[in-house]
């Protein structure tokens, strides 16, 4: 006699419930998606004890036909698919017909639904997969489904449920994502009688963001809209100052369905590259619309993961759209002191400071024959960093080169350029900002960096600032007509050097010089074998390593512009990164090397600098492509508006 038997319907549904109904939030997700598919404009979710005791979902959608109410609980019964072709063009959120029978197998369900305005509907009661009631009753148009005692007949599953607060957090997260995905629907979430979410349903996503994350957060969101032949992108992205400790703040919605996709998350993070601190993540809500044939949603039991037919193109489209939008923003946080809560407790909230000035398309460095007198006193009583100093030559020592370059920035070319040519560094290896000169140089941004003149990005200008002084040898204090600014001198100098060295590492072999006395490095035997296999990566950075026997390697040459005295430390850190990195590519190596060198070459905190040096630093910062964060993502500049200062001193009430 054969051993293989076909399981009965009840056992099959309980098995399916193990995949579909993981916890109360899974039930809420499936029921809310059914309501959305029914065309509801208002969905109310009531839960008790984290959803373990009661889950009730009420909607005003199209309802269910009386003869279909019982059939809806049959396994694989669905109204969403009529043929196999429909499986490849799914436009609804639900389509498998597994959710309702799976839920009914592990709970007590009561379904009340009506598809007309006559006041009559159908009620169906199922307990543990067994039909208890199916009859006509009074009901308004729409569907009201109640789930009681979830997992009452599967004690093992019930035992491993988390605390009520944990389950409530998962339910809330599901509702938040659905509200963001469908701002045109009014969502209400209540737990034990307390309202946790109430969206208006007016179609304004920013209002939904405000109701979920708060008004102050919504003020720091920027609208995004982009489109190509295959995809349409809309939604809001947070300014870099608005970060989270995990990826939970990244909501990606595809054709109205919230999904998790590692490729999209990586594309978003790449777009925010160097704008976020380490281990911090942005807050974004992205809605992607595409033809259903370009996405396969039938790859995950809970339909949380999808597969894209053109994933590489989609990721590139998202990354480019976000990066382009961020590059158009002036990312200087404004510090506003506000009362939060009761009593005297106070908190500092950062808001975006907007500037309306336009940005020049490029920046030229012109040849200077003799230094002009730098004007120290500005009309505002501080040190001027704009018109009075732009014609003064800016002297700079090229690190470890044996010669010095003096350059002059004209007042007409003050706006920071947006091309690919690096801004020469402000400092040499010693961290000083002004040095002597030995010959003059002229640096012109090549037109070849742009495919056409029309493609030059129009970006907002870095504000013109007048230097006031230095605080604790760490922060530069500046001002303009908009307010007061604080600049982290180390972060600013690091950004200037980073963009310079990033360009230099594009052609490191041209600058590589042999050493009279090679630098020796020691590694373990295991590390030595790995270094031997990756010597070519060091060559890509202009560093020539030779095996000297055992675990010893010697550096026979490196780029001449490595900061003097820091060469060994830089190469050791580079070697550590090469050893620990699993996959290396030229772009990552170039960037990592630039960060290492720029950090070593930059002035440090608690280091006094002269007003001329400070003005030079501010000018060079303004000439950077991205002057708002250091390469590690920390902010460089923060501001206090004149109005906020007046509020602090009670000049305005």
Account of the protein in words:
There is one protein chain. By secondary structure, the protein is α+β, with helices and mostly antiparallel strands. It folds into three domains: 9-195, Histidine kinase-like ATPase, C-terminal domain (Heat Shock Protein 90), CATH 3.30.565.10; 220-328, Ribosomal Protein S5, domain 2 (2-Layer Sandwich), CATH 3.30.230.10; 457-639, Ribosomal Protein S8, Chain: A, domain 1 (2-Layer Sandwich). The protein is built from 17 helices and 30 strands. β28 and β29 form a beta hairpin. It is elongated. Residues 338-457 have low confidence and may be disordered.
Core attributes:
25% strand, Ribosomal Protein S5, domain 2, five-stranded mixed sheet, Heat Shock Protein 90, alpha+beta, DNA_mismatch_repair_MutL, 3 domains, 653 residues, Ribosomal Protein S8, Chain: A, domain 1, single chain
Give me the CATH superfamily of the largest domain.
Histidine kinase-like ATPase, C-terminal domain
Please report the total strand number as a whole number: 30
How many structural domains?
3
Let me know the average pLDDT.
78
Any guess at the CATH architecture of the largest domain?
2-Layer Sandwich
How would you summarize what this structure contains?
With 653 residues, the protein is an alpha+beta fold. It is built from 17 helices and 30 strands. Strand 28 and strand 29 form a beta hairpin.
């Amino acid at each position: 006699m054969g051993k293989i038997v076909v399981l009965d319907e009840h056992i099959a549904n309980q098995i399916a419930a193990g995949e579909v109904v993981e916890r109360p939030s899974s039930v809420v997700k499936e029921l809310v998606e059914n309501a959305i598919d029914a065309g509801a404009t208002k969905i109310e979710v009531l839960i008790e004890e984290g959803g373990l005791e009661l889950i009730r979902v009420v909607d005003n959608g199209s309802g269910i036909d009386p003869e279909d109410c019982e059939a809806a609980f049959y396994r694989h019964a669905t109204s969403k698919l009529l043929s196999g072709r429909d499986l490849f063009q799914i436009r609804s959120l639900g389509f498998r017909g597994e959710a309702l029978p799976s839920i009914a197998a592990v709970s007590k369900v009561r379904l009340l639904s009506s598809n007309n305005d006559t006041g009559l509907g159908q009620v169906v009661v199922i307990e543990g997969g067994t039909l208890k009631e199916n009859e006509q009753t009074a009901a308004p148009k729409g569907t009201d489904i109640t789930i009681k005692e979830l997992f009452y007949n599967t004690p093992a599953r019930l035992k491993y449920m988390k605390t009520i607060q944990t389950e409530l957090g998962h339910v809330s997260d599901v509702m938040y994502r659905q509200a963001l995905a469908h701002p045109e629907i009014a969502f209400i979430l209540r737990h034990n009688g307390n309202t946790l979410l109430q969206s208006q349903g007016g179609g304004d996503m920013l209002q939904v963001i405000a109701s979920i994350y708060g008004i102050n957060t919504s003020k720091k969101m920027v609208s995004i809209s982009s489109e190509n032949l295959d995809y349409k992108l809309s939604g809001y992205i947070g300014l870099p100052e608005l970060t989270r400790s995990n990826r939970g703040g990244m909501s990606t919605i595809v054709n109205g369905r919230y999904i998790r996709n590692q490729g999209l998350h990586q594309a978003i993070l790449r777009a925010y590259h160097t704008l976020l601190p380490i281990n911090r993540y942005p807050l974004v809500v992205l809605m992607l619309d595409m033809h259903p044939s370009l996405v396969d949603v039938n790859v995950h039991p809970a339909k949380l993961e999808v597969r894209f037919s053109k994933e590489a193109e989609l990721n590139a489209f998202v990354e480019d759209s976000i990066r382009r939008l961020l590059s158009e923003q002036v990312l200087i946080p404004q510090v506003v002191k506000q009362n939060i809560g009761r009593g005297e407790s106070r908190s500092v909230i950062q808001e975006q400071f907007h500037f309306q000035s336009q940005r020049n398309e490029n920046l030229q460095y012109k040849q200077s024959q003799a230094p002009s007198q730098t004007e120290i006193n500005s009309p505002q009583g501080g040190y001027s960093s704009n018109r009075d100093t732009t014609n003064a030559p800016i002297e700079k020592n090229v690190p470890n080169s044996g010669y010095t370059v003096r350059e002059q920035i004209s007042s007409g070319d003050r706006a920071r350029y947006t091309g690919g040519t690096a801004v020469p560094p402000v400092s040499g290896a010693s961290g000083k900002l002004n040095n002597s000169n030995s010959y003059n140089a002229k640096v012109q941004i090549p037109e070849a960096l742009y495919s056409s003149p029309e493609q030059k990005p129009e970006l907002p200008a870095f504000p013109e600032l007048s230097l006031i002084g230095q605080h604790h040898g760490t922060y530069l204090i500046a001002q303009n007509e908009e307010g007061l600014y604080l600049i982290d001198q180390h972060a600013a100098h690091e950004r200037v050097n980073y963009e310079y060295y990033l360009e230099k590492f594009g052609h490191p072999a041209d600058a590589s010089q042999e050493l009279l006395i090679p630098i020796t490095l020691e590694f373990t035997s295991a590390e030595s074998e790995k270094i031997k296999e990756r010597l070519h990566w060091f060559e890509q950075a202009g560093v020539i390593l030779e095996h000297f026997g055992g675990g010893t390697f010697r550096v026979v040459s490196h780029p001449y512009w490595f900061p003097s005295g820091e060469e060994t430390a830089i190469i050791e850190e580079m070697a550590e990164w090469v050893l620990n990195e699993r996959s290396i590519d030229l772009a990552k190596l170039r960037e990592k090397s630039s960060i290492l060198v720029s950090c070593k070459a930059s002035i440090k905190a608690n280091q006094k600098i002269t007003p001329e040096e400070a003005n030079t630093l501010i000018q060079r910062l303004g000439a950077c492509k991205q002057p708002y964060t250091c390469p590690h993502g920390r902010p460089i500049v923060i501001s206090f508006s004149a109005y906020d200062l007046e509020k602090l001193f009670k000049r305005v009430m």
